[in-house]
Amino acid sequence: METARVQSVASTCTSKEDIPSDFIRPENEQPGITTVGSTDFEIPVIEINDSDEERLAKVIAKASSEIGFFQVTNHGIPRDVIDNLQRAGKEFFELPVQEKEEYSKLPGSLEGYGTALQKESEGKENIKGWVDHLFHRVWPPHVINHRFWPKNPQSYREATEEYTKQLRGVADKLFRCMSIGLGLEANELKDGAGGENLEYMMKINYYPPCPRPDLALGVPAHTDMSTLTLLVPNEVPGLQICKDGSWYNVDYVPDAIVVHIGDQIEIMSNGKYKAVLHRTTVDKHRTRISWPVFLEPPADFTVGPIPKLINDENPAKYKSKKYRDYAYCKLNKLPQ
């Protein structure tokens, strides 16, 4: 069953091979032109159940500094926990549009349901992303607003809470290893981002079939402004990362969690770890859905390069600022 939004998009097309002009990217962004085909470039897949944390830290640090992106397997989250999360999210997006709109964003709020979220200014034009989405915080308890959590399907809350509980352990292990990989104490990187007050923001991206996937994008090129993004997709590929100016497809790895290094980790590491530039493509025949969780500092928490990583030979490359101020500048395309 397709959403009402998909039907409304389709109704504006003049043929099966057309899409509305406000979804067509400029040629230098069109995936049909800019995607690299066969390549020897390999995206790291890391087993994180290695009991040798020092060895694991080196592997994760290498991927974080060279690419800013990797996938982790043997992470300990049971398959049925991920299945339940994905089933509940898929069922929500298959509801009638008027029911989904009960969870629409409120003025000034990032949380809630929205359609065609991604818009960029290209001269006088606004180019839309081929995507619907739902945003809401899932941790810690004091920042959760259940007004934005779907009540239908009934399993949504339980499935989301259990997945969040399991994901926190994975996140903590990644923070420890990345911190050790910088020569820091295991707790320092997480503490530098807010510690136990770190906020987990879940987003469900719903990318319906697109008649011209060579012309459109689900989400345009960007880096995440969070610390880390931990993502589980469905089986439909669509994620791409940029390496040395070229765009590469990310293969779907069953049972893996996709890890993006975000802006705040790049800042705290003083550029040692790289925020990955990425985008999402869409499929002509299949619906792609992804569940990223963004690990964000509290709004009033100040993030900057960790002092131990700064010296005369390696001066600070980034300003220290409150996360809310960083986010405001990024969202409004202002200098940092």
UniProtKB/TrEMBL annotation:
This protein's record includes keyword Cytoplasm: no
Cofactor(s) the protein requires to work: L-ascorbate
UniProt feature, compositional bias: Basic and acidic residues: 15-28
Key words of the record: Dioxygenase, Flavonoid biosynthesis, Iron, Metal-binding, Oxidoreductase, Vitamin C
One annotated GO molecular function: dioxygenase activity
Start and end residues of each Fe2OG dioxygenase domain: 197-297
InterPro entries in the record: DIOX_N, IPNS-like_FE2OG_OXY, IPNS-like_sf, Oxoglu/Fe-dep_dioxygenase_dom, Plant_2OG-oxidoreductases
SUPFAM superfamilies registered for this protein in UniProt: Clavaminate synthase-like (SSF51197)
A GO BP entry: flavonoid biosynthetic process
Family, as annotated: Belongs to the iron/ascorbate-dependent oxidoreductase family.
Protein name: Fe2OG dioxygenase domain-containing protein
Organism: Carnegiea gigantea
